Amino acid sequence: MLINSVIIILREVFEAALIVSVLLVLCQKLQLPRRYFLSSLGLGGVLSIFYARHIASISMFFDGVGQEILNACMHLMTFICLLFLIFSMGRRPYYKITVWAIAGCLSATLVGEGSEIIIYIQGFIGNEQLLETVLAGSFIGAGVGFSVGVFMYYLMINLRPRKGIAVSLVALVLISASMTTQAFQLLIQADILISQAPLWNTSTWVSEGSVTGQILYALLGYESTPTPIQVGGYFLSLILASALAVRTFNTFKWEKGE
Fold this sequence. Notes:
The chain is mainly alpha-helical. It has helices at 2-29, 34-53, 55-59, 61-64, 66-88, 95-122, 128-157, 161-189, 211-220, 228-251.
């Protein structure tokens, strides 16, 4: 149970920490006011608690698949916000779009990841024997996830502006594609999308339940048995986000030496 808790919480915290660190770097690189960033964090935290407390009722919506559909919507919302952010960042006419895209992405991320953590821990509150182990594993997983997020932040913030923006764009592209494949996976579970036979099985190489598998899931949306619709959605999202990222990067005016 200790290892399971470490892996589960690490995945949720790492994904949130990665997105938060990248967006915080962009706020500083683009000289955006931090009040929007902090307000979005607070809103996401409050909504995650509300979501977790009402998860039983939410799960009953849409014939018992309300949680899967709502989580898929949050992933798609994050994807859309990331596309708007990639498109608008660094362009003064689209300043408000950049701010709102960051706010929407942060809020949706914290609601999704934060509620999952709360729901997981809540499931053991009535079992004192397991709760202590689960909390210990959760603290370890959260500590590792936060540490990686802090490391990523200081790594990117200390890069020269040109490299810092480039690394941030690459991270946003990968995260946006990950959001799409995770959303499709949830919609398949909810029977909204057709279930298909997997294209391949890489579980013998990298298990989804391993630490490596969970980190790859958070960063790339890794799944050992992806369906054709997931793979197609992933690469279409990757191509679209990459095209926007290249266009945005080329619009920046860099000073000599950057």
